[in-house]
Structures are given as C-alpha cells and as structure tokens.
Design a protein that fits this description.
197 residues
Amino acid sequence: MLSQHQFICRTLLILMALTSRIPAQAPLATSTPPPTLPYVAQNKCPFEGCVYREWTALKDMPVYDTWGDGRRRTGTLGKGEKVVALGGLVVTHRPGVIHVDRDIPEVGLKRGDSVLTYTYAGEGFSQVWVNGRFHEEFDISNAKWPDGTGCGGTHCGATYVDLGQNSWWAELRLKSGVTAWVDMEDFPFSGVSRMVE
C-alpha cells in the first residue's frame, strides 16, 4: 500500500504527463463587437475649445426634462437669456465610417481597414472602433471628408465614406435654478467655444 506522500507524488507525475500531451491553445481573442446603438458618450463637449460654462441663448428654444426618449418639454428658453451649462453628452445613432486607403503604420492601420467613428474628441482625435477594439481617443486626422476636403498633405491615407449621425445634448441650470436639457443641433448659444469670447 502506498503512503500518503507516495500517492501525492505519483498523482502529480500522472498529471504532469497528461498535461504535457495537451496541445498548447491559441491565446483568447481580445476583440469586442462595436458598441450597441445608440451609443451614449457621457460628459463630452464635442469639438476643439468646447467648454461648459455660462452661455447666452441666441434664439428662443424648447427645454426638456431629460435628453432621452420619453422626454417632456418643460418650457422655453428666451433669446438673450443666460444659463450655466453643467455638462452634456453625445449620442451616436449611426457611427461614421472611414475607409483606410493605404497602410498607416503610425496608428496601426492597414489598407482596407474600416474605422467606425463615434464621439469626436477634438484635435483630430475621436472615439473609434477598429480591428475589434474600442478606443477612447484615436488619431483620425489622416482622414479626408467624403468630398476630398479636410485632410491635406502626404499623411492623408483614409477617407470618410459615411459621416454618421450624432446628436449633442447639454444640461443647463436656468436662471430660475431649475435644470433642463437642450438639443445642441444648431449650436444655439454663444459662449460655447473658448476660442470665441
């Protein structure tokens, strides 16, 4: 009869022999599917110099209790009224699509790759999904617009084939102290850009 020590040693030897015959497995894939739509990017101000601070309404506009589905209109903001912009979000209803025309090794792109764009971060960077990974900030400054404008120079190696569809909503504190949401589609405020005081 085997002692407990001998039994453990023999069991370990058998396990080692068995595991040495198991073929090595390929590493698990780290790719993820593109974000589910609509994709909501919280706390975003989607262009260079965009800033949440005191804004002035450039026209009369409706304000809502929320940005989401089922929102209710709660009033009207009058032209010239001042508000404090507390923050905002960008909703991607359809991502933009960039086609890579040539290898761009500096950002890890190859000819034929497709890049899905979500919220623009400014300075040529955007949230993107490419090659099975989502990136919070990815350099897309090498992409031309569908009409060929935008990017210029030898570093251009990709082209937008679809600009996508996004909506931008800002949360405001009104002069009454109440908070409300407004659709920023036609840029209805002054003071939104720190570039223009």
